[in-house]
Structures are given as structure tokens and as C-alpha cells.
Amino acid sequence: xxxxxxxxxxxxxxxxxxxxxxxxxxxxxxxxxxxxxxxxxxxxxxxxxxxxxxxxxxxxxxxxxxxxxxxxxxxxxxxxxxxxxxxxxxxxxxxxxxxxxxxxxxxxxxxxxxxxxxxxxxxxxxxxxxxxxxxxxxxxxxxxxxxxxxxxxxxxxxxxxxxxxxxxxxxxxxxxx
Length: 177
Hints:
By secondary structure, this protein is mostly helical. The chain is built from seven helices and two strands, in the order E-E-H-H-H-H-H-H-H. Strands 1-2 form a two-stranded antiparallel ribbon. The radius of gyration is 19 Å and the shape is globular.
């Protein structure tokens, strides 16, 4: 693409092997880590509205203390979570089943970098984002996927979603599986 628009697009492969459906450039796919940028946009919209503060201790919003047990006096903020400087690691895993609690995952010693205090070191960790989502939900009383739709996707007129239930029927029917 260039300043005038998209010059060409190419796809290869299958959107759905079982249905023998080839992938097209318009088929929705899971974007994984790119969604972190979209979440940051939503956080900044809540900051602009005065509902969140980037440098406030997230413990008060979460309703429980969020601290690296090796550095318990250093608060963890949205800025640290979004910039991967929170001292959280993915060593305990970052997939949290529907029937599990985020707080329980964060109580696992492997979830924390013992050598680096929050703010001292960059360490990419997917586990930061479920914490950010929980802070957003607590601050607004609104479910994360619905917040994302209201704050980012609808204003940009994107037929996209953070939960297949929130996608249009047309998008779900074209989803890459």
C-alpha cells in the first residue's frame, strides 16, 4: 500500500479445511498480540475521560493488592503493564480458563520476575493484558469485549470483535478457523 491506498492483496490457504473454503483478504482472523495496541487505545480513551490514570496503583481499582512479592513496596500501574515493565512474566502461563481467577494466577511465584522490580526492566508478558482488562472492567462496570467494541471498534466502524458473540453474523460466517 501507499498514500493512495492498497495496491495489491494476496491470500493463500484455507479459511476452513473442513468446509474446503479458501481464505480471502476479507476473512476475519485472530490477531493475537496486535490486539495489545487496540487495548492501549481503549485505555487511553478511558484516561481521557478521567476514568483511569496511567500512573495510579492498579491495586485500588482491582480491589486487591497487585505486587511483585520480591518487590512489595513498588506499585504496579497501567503504564507499567502496557509497556511490559510491570515485572510480570508468562512463566506461570497466561491462559486463564473461564472458571479460574486472575488473582490465583498472579499468586503463582513463576508469574513474577524476582530479579527486577516494576519499572526497572522490559520483559514482554502476555499476562499484563488480562490485568489491564480487569482494571478496565472494574473501573467501568462494563465487560471487556463490550468496552472494546464501544470505545474503539464502533467509533472506527470496524466489523471486528474481542469475542465472537460480539461479531456480526457476516464476520462469524467468514472467520478463519
